[in-house]
Amino acid sequence: MRDYSIRAAGPADLDRARAVMLDTVYRDFGTGYVPRWHGDIIDPGAAYLAPPRHTLLVALDPDGEVVATGALDSRGPAHPPNPRELAERYPSGETAQLRRVYVRPDHRRRGLARRMVGELLDFAAADGGYRSVYLHTDPSVPGAEPFWRSLGKVVHDEREDADGGNGVVHFEIPMGR
């Protein structure tokens, strides 16, 4: 197993972190860049480095290459496109939302995403102002839904909605590890 280091991203990491994120939305999600969904990917510094309650983590391999990302911000799920009850249950300011937990394919299945999430949960707990941790995932991405089910509980599965929603699965992750 390769040794990885995880740390808060700095300005010098942003281009390499952006590359991991864009590769993921094109390859794994098949959507490519969609401005209304991925604005934070284009300017991760403004989204995650500038606000004090937000963070962007990067994982580096032994060669110093960024091979994974994980982010957290204080924005709860917006309605629309998310169901109203989720926006009410997870309000901005009180909710730590996990975002952009992406690992390059050659580095998956090594516990890296789990380590990244652990560090993000530590960040949320240290903040002291978050009362819950929320995320949503696309269950069509291989491995995503089982991974998040292993860490938290489903609070809404849009596939069960009468209209199918956006097919997204919403989770709450316990803050304490």
Description:
- Strands 1-2-3-4-5-7-6 form a seven-stranded mixed sheet, sandwiched between helices.
- The protein has six helices and seven strands; from the N terminus they run βαααββαβαβαββ.
- With about 180 residues, it is of the alpha+beta class.
- The longest helix is centred in the last third of the chain and has 16 residues, at about 110-125.
- The two termini are about 25 Å apart.
- Helices cover about 35% and strands about 25% of the residues.
- The model has no long low-confidence stretch (mean pLDDT about 95).
Short description:
By secondary structure, the chain is of the alpha+beta class. The chain is 33% helix and 24% strand. The protein is built from 6 helices and 7 strands.
Low-confidence parts lasting 5 or more residues at pLDDT below 50? none
Gap between N and C termini = 24 Å
Helix content: 25-40%
Using only CA atoms, what is the Rg? Answer: 15 Å
Helix tally equals 6
H and E string: EHHHEEHEHEHEE
Characterize the biggest β-sheet.
7 strands, mixed
Strand proportion, as a percent range, falls in 15-25%
| Extended strand count | 7
Task: State the secondary-structure class.
Answer: alpha+beta
Roughly what is the average pLDDT, rounded to an integer?
A: 95
General shape:
globular
Q: Strand order, main sheet: write it out.
A: 1-2-3-4-5-7-6
